[in-house]
Amino acid sequence: MSEHTAIPNNILTAMDYQSHAQARLSSTIWQYLEGGAGKGLTLKANVEVFDQVGLMSRPLSNVKSGHTRLALFGQQFEHPFLLAPIAYQRLFHKNGEKMSAMAANAQAGQMVVSSLASQTVEEIIEAAQQPLWFQLYWQGDRLGTLRLLKRALSCGYNAVMFTVDAPVKQAVIALPDNIQAVNLASPLAISALQAHQSMVFDGWMAQAPTWDDVAWLRDQIKVPFLIKGLLHLADVEKTLALGCDGLVVSNHGGRVLDSVPTSLSVLPAIAKLVSGKACLLFDSGIRTGQDAYKALALGADALMIGRPYIWGLTSAGAMGVAHVLKLMRDELEMTMALSGVPTLADIKASNTIIFN
Ligand code: FNR
């Protein structure tokens, strides 16, 4: 856990924070942050896939008064980068989630606070001094899930992102005694299994949510409701049919099922299907503002970044997170300007994407 608050020298891109973060974390925590599932195939591909997409420069275009502003669910933001839900942020900085939330506000953006946050939802939103979004994990049953949801909504969270792609995910790190998922009632207990029963099917999956639960949740939630962790077109169709307000094309940063496609490779078909019927967010693999441009050009309305802002948090607390957001936005602006595109809305129609 780091206590640093000053921006290191010689940082020119968000990726420059990576080595500073590594130097400040134990190898166990570093592995927890950077690791992927299985052989790490999806983790690696998530980043590399952006290199297969090229750009086209459009000099002499008039981009005066260009900007990266956008509105999501009536909320105004200066740029399309949201901070993705990342668990246990006190592993990375002693002031944890509160630092990230302050940075999101300072950069006129948004943070999605994890169900597995290491600080209370109340203190995080107080530090933010703005409404935040809440990432919901299923709590084994409807009652427990509703309890957590109501707590977040009652202290001012104004959108709910339900993560569905990690139902059998257990804590993959032994947490220090003083760092816990403080907003959860108690660790999920698995009922005792018979000898012939499977830990996966009869244990974890017996308390995982299904589409019926999504339909039920949809009815409980009056604020914007998004589903995070979709890659398959049929699942996107169901999400739209259930009247969800948005979805996140995501493979959880390559941390759950190895060998699934990269988010970027499935984005164009999903964007075509969604075609404005819901808010389309994207994450997994964004490391630069140019990557962000490519995801926007392939159909995303907005983006979430995961590991890069945690590198900033580890290296320099709130200042580091704010700096990562600023660097990404600067790179996005420069990419837009050189591509002859003045606004986010113009990116999709710009024809500045080339598949290498
Ligand atoms: C995550 N992610 C995640 N997602 C979620 O819905 N709830 C969570 O608590 C967490 N926790 C978490 C911890 C760590 C250490 C990582 C790296 C990721 C997934 C996260 O929200 C996002 O989908 C990915 O991080 C995006 O990929 P990149 O930007 O890290 O490549």
Task: Please give a structural write-up.
Helix 6 links the parallel strand 6 and strand 7 (160-163). The N and C termini lie far apart (41 Å). The strands form three sheets. The chain has an eight-stranded parallel barrel with strand order 4-5-6-7-8-9-10-11, surrounded by six helices. A two-stranded antiparallel sheet has the order 1-12. Helix 4 (96-106) runs parallel beside helix 5 and helix 9 packs parallel to helix 10 (263-274). It has one domain (14-54, 71-186, 199-355): Aldolase class I (TIM Barrel, Alpha-Beta Barrel), CATH 3.20.20. It is of the alpha/beta class. It contains 13 helices and twelve strands. Bound molecules: ligand FNR. Residues 32-33, 46, 84-87, 114, 116, 135, 163, 228, 250, 252-253, 255, 283-286, 305-307 line the site of ligand FNR.
Radius of gyration: 20 Å
Largest sheet: 8 strands, parallel, barrel
Low-confidence stretches: none
Please give the CATH class: Alpha Beta
What is this structure's SSE topology?
Layout: H1 17-24, H2 27-34, H3 41-48, E1 53-55, E2 70-72, E3 75-77, E4 81-83, H4 96-106, E5 110-113, H5 121-128, E6 133-136, H6 142-154, E7 160-163, H7 199-204, H8 211-220, E8 225-230, H9 233-241, E9 246-249, H10 263-274, E10 279-282, H11 289-297, E11 302-305, H12 307-338, H13 344-348, E12 353-355
Parallel strand pairs: 4-5, 4-11, 5-6, 6-7, 7-8, 8-9, 9-10, 10-11
Antiparallel strand pairs: 1-12, 2-3
Helix pairs in contact: 1-12, 4-5, 4-12, 9-10, 11-12
The structure holds ligand FNR.
